[in-house]
Recover the amino acids of this structure.
């Protein structure tokens, strides 16, 4: 409880790591799941979660992808960063997007069915519309990110001002 005369501070933004997973067996596709739960239910998401204390971004990406989709990643590297704010939902996350490849013969398994309806490989250029994407993924798409290039042009001029309704 706030002391007398002290303003209640808004919560601090969370730090998340999202993972753009590609596979040599599924050209031009990334791994998408559909969220369950109180925040963003029914929207499409990437594997990912909270950065743990002392963890590197690559370690978090590999851990979350293994925990959620039973996939081991190779060549994990930086992809982007987004600042997603939805005041109505009291949601504010800074999400670091990492990118990695699944092993060629590996297919995802849904290891957290209480949080996710299932995983599927979806062509990047045949994605669901923006209003069906969970916030970090929607912001990533709006940046113009392309998972099939190593260019970081999508970050030029990015101000981190995604205000979502």
């Amino acid at each position: 409880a706030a002391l007398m005369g002290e303003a209640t501070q808004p919560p601090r933004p969370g730090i998340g790591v999202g993972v753009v997973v590609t596979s040599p067996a599924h050209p031009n596709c990334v791994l998408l799941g559909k969220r369950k739960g109180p925040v963003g239910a029914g929207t499409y998401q990437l594997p990912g979660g909270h950065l743990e204390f002392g963890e590197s971004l690559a370690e978090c990406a590999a851990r979350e992808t293994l925990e959620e989709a039973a996939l081991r990643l190779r060549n994990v590297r930086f992809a982007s960063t987004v600042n997603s704010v939805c005041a109505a939902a009291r949601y504010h996350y800074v999400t670091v997007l990492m990118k990695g490849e699944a092993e060629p013969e590996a297919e995802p398994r849904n290891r957290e069915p209480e949080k996710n309806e299932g995983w599927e490989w979806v062509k990047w250029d045949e994605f669901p519309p923006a209003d069906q994407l969970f916030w970090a993924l929607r912001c990533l798409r709006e940046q113009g990110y392309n998972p099939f290039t190593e260019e970081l042009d999508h970050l030029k001029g990015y101000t981190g001002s995604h205000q979502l309704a």
